[in-house]
Structure formats: structure tokens, C-alpha cells
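ok trying this again, last paste got cut off
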Amino acid sequence: MRALSVIFLYLNLFGCFHLFAQEKITIENLTLSIRPNEFPKSIPTGFVPDGSQLLYSTDLKKFGFESVEIALIFESPMSKDELLLYYEVFLKGLDWRILQKETNSEKSIFLAESPGKKNILTILLSKKGTGSFIKLFSKKQTNY
């Protein structure tokens, strides 16, 4: 029992406990989630490929209910090249316009715009082992 108490204390003191638990912090209109169980509701289905594991998310809401900025950091078992193709086909299928796409052997970035210029989306892909590490940022065009 003493060993279990020492391990628990060690994990808490050195900030390692977050590896196992979900945390949610809300400050006014901003919500930060660490290892959340679900994706923000304002992210349309498909922006995060199946099998991905969400690590962090932030959600800035206008007047407390409408999301205007969302950031996600997640891991995917898909390779960087598979994700490049996935996002190209997915965004074109939604009639999003890809404004910029740059890629090298380690990282790739997309900048895309939704129909009617309502949303801007930035996707940064990088290799992580056999899978990928993804940072996704979405901003709704408002007068906020």
C-alpha cells in the first residue's frame, strides 16, 4: 500500500498524472481539455480520421455558445502521406478551397477556406513513428 501511495504522489508532483486522466479547464468563453473523451461538437464529422486519439482541444465561444475558434491536437495511426491524401479528398468533397499546401519529408501544412469564406482551417501534419501527429486550427469568420 505504501508503494502505491508513493507512486501516486510522484505522478502528481511531477505532472505525469495527466497521462491517465481527463482534465477540463474553463475560463469565461475558453475551454481547454486535456485528454478529452470526445471531440468538440462544432468540429464536423470527418475532420478527425477514425482511430485518432485526441490529446488536447481548445474551444473559444462567442457569447458562451457559438464556437469561433477551435484548436485540436491529436495522433493518428495513419501515415503523413495517407493523411495528406485524406485531407485533400475530404476538403474537396466538402467544396472547401485549399489556399495553400506545403510539404516536406517531415511536415505538411494545409490552409483551407470553407464555401462562402465562413471558416478558415489550418492543418499541420508531422510524422510520429509509423503514425502522425496532427494540429488542427479552425477559425470562424465573424465580427468578433
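PB: full thing came through this time. DSSP finds two helices and eight strands in the chain.
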